[in-house]
Amino acid sequence: MSVGVSTSAPLSPTSGTSVGMSTFSIMDYVVFVLLLVLSLAIGLYHACRGWGRHTVGELLMADRKMGCLPVALSLLATFQSAVAILGVPSEIYRFGTQYWFLGCCYFLGLLIPAHIFIPVFYRLHLTSAYEYL
């Protein structure tokens, strides 16, 4: 049994490169501040436009008149997070396709609440399981 020994010298860093942390540039700060200001402006516009005329049911539950697609997209957005979007590809790369079993379990696990609990909450005009409890 032989042990492999490397005889090559380690690579030295070139003089033109530096290993450092990248920071925000002025343009990054401008875009970030514009994002915050635009979000604030949208919120203030909608708050001032209809202040005091809406009930809690209209604001939180859209008066129960939303279609299936917006509700489904909202639920999908709550299940996905930045951590999941960044972590799932690395999880699959590292451990293979066994991660798909979790997806299958999500699919099967969500069928039970969708067909048993959600109709009960809807008939009772409840907004969450916490309100039921």
From TrEMBL:
Listed GO biological process terms: sodium ion transport
Localisation per UniProt entry: Cell membrane
Q: Name one GO molecular function term.
A: transmembrane transporter activity
Q: What is its main location?
A: membrane
Q: Which InterPro entries match?
A: Na/Glc_symporter_sf, Na/solute_symporter, Sodium:Solute_Symporter_SSF
- Residue ranges annotated as transmembrane are 26-47, 68-88, 100-122
Which segments does the entry list as coiled coil?
A: none
Per the record, its GO cellular-component terms are: plasma membrane
Protein name, as recorded: Solute carrier family 5 member 6
